[in-house]
Design goal:
Elements: E1 18-22, H1 31-40, E2 45-48, H2 50-58, E3 64-65, H3 66-71, H4 86-93, H5 99-108, E4 121-124, H6 129-132, H7 140-145, H8 150-160, E5 166-168, H9 174-182, H10 189-219
Parallel strand pairs: 1-2, 1-4, 2-3, 4-5
Helix pairs in contact: 1-9, 4-8, 8-10
Length: about 220
């Protein structure tokens, strides 16, 4: 299959200036090192929400709390509602060279921020669902609460817009981004596309694990009904 790149599609290496982090507790140790490395490579704005923002601040990383400074709304419903919305979607999905996209980003997607926000890197670690259900007997609500909605959505958005954004589906892949930036090469279109492919693969495996768990629950006989 031959895939053509249309005129106007961004093929230039990306030198990111902003990053959004949302990292599960199990992957937070060492996050500050990656954040510091990105700062040294030219990233000026690091965004995060909830526990990730708190962790970075505690480790002396200048961080912009996404909920506090952009959406103006705190996480709700036991963190089931947190980051998703026009603000995060616009920051990720906008094509930077499309004037209409950028106009609508400013009109509809900036929340309480005086200026529209875009994310060049979206680094998210998804809730460890498979680890949660690996114990001998798992509480159903505990399993359900570890079905991540926001993380996969943010990653899918970033992977779709790999033209302008680098998706990072877990801290294990941060080195793939930091290394070329340290070498002054930027993140090539090929690398962005590769990271998008890895991201979609990881989300697919995650969804398959949830599907298997729910089918096992149905087929095992539902107790308590």
């Amino acid at each position: 299959m031959k895939i053509s790149v249309p005129p106007g599609f961004n093929t230039a290496p990306l030198f990111p200036r902003s990053c959004f982090f949302s990292v599960h507790n199990s992957e937070k140790p060492g996050l500050e090192d990656y954040a510091q490395a990105l700062i040294q490579c030219g990233v000026t704005d690091i965004y995060a929400s909830g526990g990730t923002a708190k962790y970075l601040a505690e480790h002396f990383i200048p961080v912009i709390d996404f909920n506090e400074k952009i959406t103006g709304k705190p996480p709700a419903m036991s963190h089931r509602v947190a980051t998703l919305g026009y603000e995060s979607a616009g920051a990720i999905l906008a094509r930077r060279n499309d004037p209409k996209h950028m106009e609508e980003l400013a009109l509809y997607c900036r929340g309480i921020s005086p200026e529209p926000v875009t994310f060049d890197i979206v680094a998210v670690s998804i809730y460890p669902f498979e680890k949660t259900i690996s114990i001998k007997e798992v509480d159903l609500l505990t399993a359900v609460e570890n079905i991540d909605i926001g993380g996969p959505t943010l990653l899918r958005e970033a992977a779709k817009n790999f033209e302008w954004v680098v998706p990072v589906p877990g801290m294990n892949w941060m080195g793939e981004i930091v290394t070329p930036l340290r070498e002054g090469k930027g993140i090539t279109l090929s690398k962005r596309a590769e990271m998008a492919a890895i991201t979609f693969e990881q989300i697919s495996l995650y969804d398959e694990a949830i599907e298997r768990f729910l089918l096992d629950f149905v087929h095992s006989g539902i107790s308590g009904q």
